[in-house]
Automatic annotation (TrEMBL):
Protein name: Glutamyl-Q tRNA(Asp) synthetase
GO annotation (BP), single: tRNA modification
Family stated for the protein in its record: Belongs to the class-I aminoacyl-tRNA synthetase family. GluQ subfamily.
Gene giving rise to this polypeptide: gluQ
Species for this entry: Photobacterium swingsii
Zinc listed as a keyword: yes
HAMAP family assigned: Glu_Q_tRNA_synth
Residue numbers binding L-glutamate: 11-15, 47, 174, 192
Segments carrying motif 'KMSKS' region: 230-234
Length: 300
């Protein structure tokens, strides 16, 4: 049965560091099915925030791959590379209100201090030159509820750390960008891979700091290879096949604990996705954060 959540907006937010692989297809499909089974909108945002880690042409290739899999998004695409003014304006506001401050500490110094940033530069009134910007965390988020995993506890040492919103190298921090963008796009629920459970507390902290209504979270199990590595662009996970999407789409559904009937492999992509929307049950997902692939990734 399809339940209706009024005004549901979900999204898929790939970083263009390489082509779409099986692990990112799972995130795309899971967020798509969760949105469409609630008659929601499903948006796509290209997270091109970190040019040195990007691969030329990957953003377009990812979009073409989504289309080849029948995963059509609603509305226009947001690109983080076009959002710098909004990120900077928010940072400037927090700096002027003393909710944020410049920090000159290196990673090495923080490691030597025990691994967590102890607030060394909080009251030093440093200027921008060669510095990162950190947000003052006065109300640490030590737990949150995930739709699949239930209550997730965050260690206090991590939760209370003043974290970076603008990096020393001039790049905007992922946590800041993702929250400002999700607010701008009106996202109500975030469905993504379990590798992003850890920064979720910081992101909730940003919503609170911005006085914005919080979103719901559902972290999908990650696809890992037999040796326990996450399938990722950094690990050079192979691109999924754009020419023959059906077997891979059905494999992604099975990964998401669905049991598509055998005859569905003869159906059209649209029919397969339709079946997915009708039969999607996020409660059926295994509560593990990682699932070892039962097939070799290069078989896809
Ligand atoms: N861009 C991130 C990634 O590709 C996902 C961010 C998110 O879903 O919040 O891993």
């Amino acid at each position: 049965m399809i339940s209706t959540t009024l005004g549901y907006v979900g999204r898929f937010a790939p970083s263009p560091s390489g082509p779409l692989h099986f692990g990112s297809l799972v995130a795309a499909l899971g967020s798509y099915l969760q949105a469409k089974s609630q008659q929601g909108k499903w948006l796509v945002r290209v997270e091109d925030l970190d040019p040195p880690r990007e691969m030329p042409g990957a953003a377009d290739d990812i979009l073409r791959t989504l289309e080849a899999y029948g995963l059509y998004w609603d509305g226009g695409i947001m690109y983080q590379s076009q959002r710098h003014e909004a990120y900077q304006a928010q940072i400037d506001q927090w700096l002027s209100e003393h909710h944020a401050y410049y920090c000159q500490c290196t990673r090495k110094q923080i490691k030597a201090a025990g691994g967590f940033y102890p607030g060394t530069c909080r009251d030093l009134q440093l200027s921008a030159q060669g510095c990162a910007v950190r947000l003052k965390v006065d109300q640490p988020i030590t737990e949150f509820d995930d739709l699949l995993h239930g209550r997730i506890e965050i260690p206090l040492s991590l939760a209370q750390e003043d974290f970076i919103i603008h990096r020393r190298d001039g790049l905007f921090a992922y946590n800041l960008a993702v929250v400002l963008d999700d607010i701008e796009q009106g996202v109500t629920e975030i469905v993504r891979g379990a590798d992003l459970i850890e920064p979720t507390g910081r992101q909730i902290g940003l919503y609170r700091q911005l006085n914005q209504p919080e979103v719901r979270y559902l972290h999908l199990p990650l696809a890992v290879t037999e040796n326990g590595n996450k399938l990722s662009k950094q690990n050079h996970a192979p691109a999924i096949d754009k020419q023959q999407p059906k077997p891979t789409l059905l494999a992604a559904m099975r990964f998401l604990a669905m049991t598509p009937p055998a005859e569905l492999s003869q159906a059209s992509l649209a029919e397969i996705l339709d079946w997915g929307v009708q039969n999607w049950q996020h409660n059926a997902l295994p509560k593990s954060t990682a699932i070892t692939l039962a097939f070799k990734n290069d078989e896809l």
